[in-house]
Write a structure and sequence with these properties.
The N terminus is likely disordered. The chain contains ten helices and eleven strands. A seven-stranded mixed β-sheet has the order 7-6-5-8-9-11-10, sandwiched between helices. A four-stranded antiparallel β-sheet has the order 1-2-3-4, with helices on one face. Bound molecules: zinc ion. Zinc ion binds next to loops.
Length: about 325
């Protein structure tokens, strides 16, 4: 896989790191390089598009339309149809400017097209001390950037090639060491026990619960014994979540719509799939409250963030409040 290292997409050490971790997402067998492709010992073939490995499983239904698009690009070998550019020190990546409300939620809608800085959240984790970190559904990489700044060695996956290309551009621009791969959370293309910390935010909610369970099984497989997964998901009893469910008349979610989980269901599912788990409150009134982004928000939404933070602090003393939080974190530990 040496040729991979000559592509501009990622730094050399990030590429060396990924070469050590990657396996076939179908059967987890060893990969070797053949021309522009990666091939496993049983013959499964994956394209590398301008330095980005496209490790999607083509013969299953994709969880996101962008996965289907990435596979079409992989098959055509026609990477040149994608715009290629470098960002100046003060530019904001045009892809990020466009998708900011999709990746960060409704509180960021006014920033579409006008974003002037990257909103990098603060990660509720201890310092990384060079430990290996995986973000499942990283999009343009905000959590990977947060992880790198906290001392982790981040790897991000996303089914969207456009997102992964943006993630590489932004990391390069900010001087962040991170590795990005096009992949599907249900079929992680990494060796067993590759990661100390797995993270996922606002992602598994878009999968059916069956698909989310498949992703959790893969998260456990790729976690080291002693490692943890921190996963954010929406609470079925959250005040704002109840309102959204009411608007769709409590019918079953479909396609990319949000799936709401009961706290007890989260605990049992994560305990079965990964190991001992606990819940904590992420926030209220939105599924993406980031106090670190306060200065970017309009006054009305700043008030939402302040209210959410006040309730979150109170929820430590008044347990009933935790039960109606909209956004929950599950922290699950692999113990064997
Ligand atoms: Zn294979």
């Amino acid at each position: 896989m040496n040729e991979l290292q000559h592509h501009a997409g990622q730094t050399e050490s990030a590429q060396a790191q990924i070469c050590e971790l990657l396996v076939c997402p179908r059967d987890k067998r060893h990969l070797h390089r053949e021309g522009d492709d990666l091939i496993c010992e049983t013959g499964h073939r994956y394209a590398v598009s301008e330095g980005v490995p496209i490790m999607l499983v083509s013969d299953v239904e994709q969880t996101h339309i962008e996965g289907t698009r990435a596979l079409a690009i992989a098959e055509s070998g026609n990477a040149l149809t994608l715009a290629k550019f470098n960002l100046g020190p003060n530019d904001i990546d045009p892809f990020v400017k466009n998708v900011i409300a999709a990746t960060n939620g409704g509180l960021y809608r006014h920033l579409v097209g006008t974003l002037t800085e990257y909103p990098i959240p603060s990660l509720r984790l201890p310092p990384g001390e060079n430990r290996q970190f995986l973000d499942v559904g990283c999009n343009w990489g905000r959590w990977c950037i947060a992880a790198a700044r906290l001392g982790y060695r981040p790897v991000g996956i996303d089914p969207s090639l456009k997102s992964i290309r943006a993630a590489n551009r932004v990391a390069r621009q900010l001087g962040i060491e991170a590795t990005y791969v096009v992949a599907d959370g249900r079929y992680l293309p990494f060796r067993d026990q590759s990661f100390d910390q797995v993270f996922s935010y606002s992602v598994l909610q878009h999968l059916s619960k069956e698909n989310a369970r498949s992703a959790l099984t893969e998260i456990r497989r790729t976690l080291r014994v002693g490692g943890s997964a921190l996963v954010q998901l929406p609470n079925v009893f959250g005040l704002r979540c109840l309102y959204h469910q009411m608007r769709r008349a409590f019918r079953e979610a479909r396609d990319f719509e949000v799936r709401y989980w009961m706290p007890a269901e989260l605990l049992s599912t994560f305990a079965e799939s990964i190991g001992p788990s606990e819940l904590s409150v992420d926030g209220y009134f939105s599924l993406n409250v980031q106090p670190s982004d306060l200065h970017l928000l309009i006054a009305r939404y700043r008030a939402v963030v302040h209210a959410s933070e006040a309730l979150r602090r109170l929820s430590g003393k008044i347990p009933i409040l935790a039960k109606v939080a909209d956004s929950l974190y599950v922290n699950a530990h692999r113990t064997n």
